[in-house]
Design goal:
Layout lengths: L2 H12 L20 H14 L11 H17 L7 E5 L2 H14 L8 E5 L4 H10 L2 E5 L10 H7 L4 E7 L11 H10 L3 E5 L7 H7 L15 E5 L11 E5 L2 H4 L4 E3 L7 E3 L9 H37 L4 E3 L7 E6 L5 H10 L5 E3 L8 E5 L8 H18 L6 H9 L7 H10 L16 H9 L2 H15 L8 H5 L2
Parallel strand pairs: 2-3, 2-4, 4-5, 5-6
Antiparallel strand pairs: 1-7, 6-7, 8-9, 10-11, 11-13, 12-13
Length: 485
């Protein structure tokens, strides 16, 4: 293929993706709306894309930029002078490392446990699975969505190696009572990690205008580590996150070395060995370009945009905000006349992507919105689309799963299914054509309705089965672009 043909194929493959700029995608991507920052980020990505963070003696520029970013984040998050940190590939890796480091700091504990609110990010479950740590889930307040510090304290025992708080939690955008949780952890001699992947680059600026913003940072004595994503409200390209520890001693179990083979001695600060310097360089460049005053202005835009959304939903006949969001995220629940899964489809049909969240415990299914700076100028347009989508969804009526299917799903053990049984179940859920070939309708309400009535373990099994099938390669000549997918 010629370079132009390759470019055409890339454009064809990209055509069905959600837009990453323009403020219409209210999940997955975060857009500053600053064209100059986007251009500079792409330039830095290209310039450093071939560098490798594996060996800082080979690419000292990457080490220098990494330490600049760590120092900048430590200042924002009130870290003491001895604060150390590492750049990771994203929030999930930062959370994985926080759990791994806590586990390895306590070799005396045979069955290490992780105490976390039920609203904590799913990456903690992944970390527990990967590292053999027992997750201990503590119910959050069913009205506010915040962790209950006293219940968290009661869950701490001799096996606990880490206690978690969120700033904010992803599902409902609320900041947990970090001070109380960290105080209990410190009294028990246990590490406390604050997941500020969402809020870590917002809360410091919001707190300047409003000292009443809940405490979350290293100013809280019991907080031992904090994660913050630069590719969220630092508005840098994917994927750059930071994991900060209060001291080098606390971080030390995170570091890995192996000389037990004939090759080079492996020495890593993160789970990765080879790491492209492109995202790191882009993050360094963009944080320098936007600067402190720029981030303060962007944070104020997001704060005001969130307030506009909350006020608009407050007068809605069918929608309500779950909890009282503290930063940039909010979850919308609906009355019986409105189905949030259908609402999500209607919004997408109007050019706006909002993320459906399935029901969980005391919380109903919700529509999740992430507000970034680029969305704020378009909020009047979004609210018009939201009103029209609500009207259309109410007129269409709720999308529900067949009661008979719901009863079957409630009794089904996913471990008892073979591949043929999974294919049949995926077809019933609308995720397969019945022969094992994956299918995904353009309107997802019916699929989400089935998933919503399925028990958690079956939801996971269904989606893993779908992911297994959709991620198998199509062995046609030329690949996915040539096949017209």
């Amino acid at each position: 293929m010629t370079p132009d043909e390759v470019r055409q194929q890339l454009a064809a493959v990209r055509a069905h993706d959600l837009p990453t700029h323009g403020g219409r995608t209210l999940a997955y991507v975060y857009d500053s709306g600053l064209a100059e920052a986007d251009a500079l980020g792409r330039e830095a990505l290209a310039a450093f894309g071939g560098t490798n963070g594996l060996d800082p003696t080979a690419f000292p520029s990457l080490l220098a930029m990494e330490q600049d970013l760590v120092g900048l984040a430590a200042d924002l998050l009130d870290g003491p002078p001895e604060t150390v940190g590492s750049v990771t590939s994203g929030g999930t890796e930062s959370l994985l490392l926080a759990v791994q480091t806590a586990r390895d700091s306590r070799p005396d504990v045979e069955r290490p446990a992780l105490v976390m609110p039920s609203s904590a990010h799913a990456s903690f479950h992944k970390a527990a699975h990967y590292f053999g740590v027992r997750p201990v889930l503590v119910d959050v307040d069913p009205v506010t969505g915040r962790a209950v510090a006293s219940a968290m304290a009661e869950a701490i025992d001799a096996d606990t190696v880490l206690v978690v708080a969120s700033a904010p939690s992803y599902p409902h955008g609320v900041v947990d009572p970090v001070t109380e949780i960290a105080t209990h952890a410190q009294a028990a001699g246990v590490r406390c990690h604050v997941d500020a992947c969402i809020g870590g680059w917002l809360l410091p600026y919001l707190r300047r205008d409003d000292p009443g913003v809940p405490a979350y940072s290293f100013l809280v004595p019991g907080v031992t580590s904090i994660s913050v994503d630069l590719h969220k409200y630092g508005y840098t390209p994917k994927g750059v996150s930071l994991l900060l520890h209060r001291s080098p001693e606390l971080r030390r179990p995170q570091l890995f070395a192996s000389a037990a083979w004939p090759g080079y001695t492996m020495l890593n600060t993160t789970t990765q060995s080879t790491r492209s310097g492109g995202p790191l360089a882009a993050a360094w460049a963009i944080t320098r370009l936007i600067g402190d005053d720029g981030y303060l202005a962007l944070a104020r835009e997001v704060r005001d945009g969130l307030a506009t959304l909350v006020a608009a939903v407050g007068v809605s006949a069918h929608l309500r905000v779950v909890g009282r969001p503290d930063t940039s995220l909010l979850a919308l629940a609906a009355d019986d006349a409105l189905d949030v899964f259908t609402l999500a489809d209607e919004l997408l049909a109007r050019g706006w992507y909002a993320q459906p969240q399935l029901s969980s415990g005391p919380f109903p299914a919700t529509l999740h919105l992430s507000v970034s700076a680029a969305t704020v100028p378009r909020l009047p347009e979004f609210l018009t689309a939201l009103d029209a989508a609500v009207d259309a969804a109410v007129a269409a009526g709720p999308t529900t799963a067949d009661p008979g299917l719901a009863a079957v799903l409630a009794e089904l053990d996913p471990a008892s299914l073979d591949d043929a049984g999974f294919d049949q179940l995926l077809a019933m859920a609308g995720l397969s054509d019945g022969s094992g070939a994956p299918a995904l309708p353009t309107r997802m309400a019916a699929v989400n309705a089935v998933l919503d009535v399925a028990p958690t373990a079956l939801r996971e099994a269904l989606l893993v089965g779908y992911l297994d099938r959709v991620s198998r390669p199509v062995r046609a000549a030329g690949g996915v672009a040539s096949s017209g997918s």
